[in-house]
Predict the structure.
Amino acid sequence: MDLVPALREPLKKVLGPATAKVMAEHLGLDTVGDLLHHYPRRYEERGQLTHLADLPMDEHVTVVAQVADARLHSFASAKAPRGKGQRLEVTITDGSGRLQLVFFGNGVHKPHKELLPGTRAMFAGKVSLFNRRLQLAHPAYELLRASADDEEGAEAVESWAGALIPLYPATAKLESWKIAKAVQTVLPSAQEALDPLPESLREGRGLVPLPEALLKIHRPHTKADIADARARLKWDEAFVLQVALARRRHAETQVPAVPRTPLPDGLLTAFDARLPFTLTEGQQRVSREIFTDLATDHPMHRLLQGEVGSGKTLVALRAMLAVVDAGGQAAMLAPTEVLAQQHHRSVTEMMGELAEGGMLGGAEHATKVVLLTGSMGTAARRRALLDLATGEAGLVIGTHALIEDKVQFHDLGLVVVDEQHRFGVEQRDALRGKGKQPPHLLVMTATPIPRTVAMTVFGDLETSVLDQLPAGRSPIASHVVPAADKPHFLARAWERVREEVENGHQTYVVCPRIGDDEDAPKKSAEDDAEKRPPLAVLDVADHLAKGPLQGLRVEVLHGRMHPDDKDAVMRRFAAGETDVLVATTVIEVGVNVPNATAMVIMDADRFGVSQLHQLRGRVGRGSAAGLCLLITEMPEASPARGRLDAVAATLDGFELSRVDLEQRREGDVLGQAQSGARTSLRVLAVIEDEEIIAEAREEATAVVAADPELAAFPALRTALDALLDEEREQYLEKG
């Protein structure tokens, strides 16, 4: 972060080209500063052993353990037909569990000599499952004990002689101890690290200076050293990120916008009078927050979170109608064509004659609602564009097609973005440019986000939460179905689907992939032979139609179908002409079929917690109770099963979002996928460090209010520039 010449030194100059290349390609580390900010994941104490009992499948791990026994076996194989093949099996233990290591062929000689019973070493490799037992195949290792007369061995032990061994996030190409040696080489440069924290803040909170923190995190002598270093480095991360967000918020208040206040007896009043139900307290509260924002003279930036089915779309529609009342236009951006079409259908149904502006039979305050998507015919598209340009259409619902150059608005006042569609900066500017002044912005998401993540990821947006479900929604029962352990449970699952259909209801079956040639899983050399590819829609649909669900009307839906075909399948399902829809996650967002009561998710362990929660929200939307069956072949004690049990145990999305966060690295949550950049968070844990994030937000807001350009804080500016390299900048511009 604190890039100064010594820390900007390329690693290839310091460590040599071969090591530097691996670090750049596999860990994204290019400079001395990058390596100094690659912190140990945890530390091993001499004499203390890691927990082999908790090893995660398919992850690259480093363990410290003792050899219990080692056996050399001979076997015949294609390469060694006369029984000359050799396999070395070594069992290691750490008191909590045992783990098998295997070496083959010429690779057996060195470990056979070195890994004698009683030897302690660090082992690194990828955890796989063989014969239902965890193992590491051909792990790299570094001996931790050596005899005094073995000079090289004594030196190796000497270099590990610190009381605490740092274990770094490593890869198959670069073991933890090699990273540790590289860090040792660059550690003297830490003295030149510029400190981004204002001195008053650092001293006020009793935090150690940055060079000292870097030294203590890489070479701690005591646990207190680690605690000091982490406390300090957490503040760096929280504060620099919050300053970036505070500057965005500050910049927004400098931008003018047209205040939009609804007419006392206009379109909104007429719409509310049409509603066959009263709004929930939550919907009324959130609507008030939005209307207050719309009435101000700088752009609203609000995130609306709500569970699937909490009525977000209705709240957003009321905001759009308020803007139309005030003489402006409102646009809703959906992530897919299916969803845009669906929103258009439900909005026109809810509005009735109020959506028939300019037509015979249209109501007095009516406006026109147009749909704009990429696959529309030329004539329909031309008509929609004309309605937008003249202001005839007050509401437009569409996909990214809305952002194109050709689209001109008469007076764009509000943009509603569905499913936290993270805009890049160009997209946001493109939409902004379509308003005479910057439009107000409302971002909606059905993925519940814990408060701290909202402060971190969406820190430039104010947040509203809809947490009560409208009356009349049914509970959903969820169960994990262990297909491998109990095959009869799977048979029972298909019987339950038949029962739902016999009772006049419909079912979704969701699979991880499509099953055509294009999405055939790529086999990599190190793929475990025992791991089968994820189940596919086309195969499962075929199997069900010919087997367990024979006689029922089964159809498929996936993202590579032609939009018209997708729409036709969805319409048939919504009309009740299909009993079972076998689909990919294209149904995850926004498909609303109240008569669908059951959802079966195949290979459920291959989906994330929040995705499973989103999918489950597609059933139980009517008056009949919903059922969600999570099918998995993962063994009972695996972390994947734990995740599924958590989903089955609660319908509270906020609770699940915490589980999800605790199980995943924050980097994923903070949009590594969106930005392609390495996450800036290395020691800050978004859930545990709620207080630090909240305090850093206050401090950052105060600093930016007093000195928006940060003229008095050059080191903080440098840290910000490093954080906001191009990709991060776009990523923070999403709001």
Notes: DSSP finds 28 helices and 21 strands in the chain. The longest strand covers residues 60-75. The radius of gyration is 29 Å.
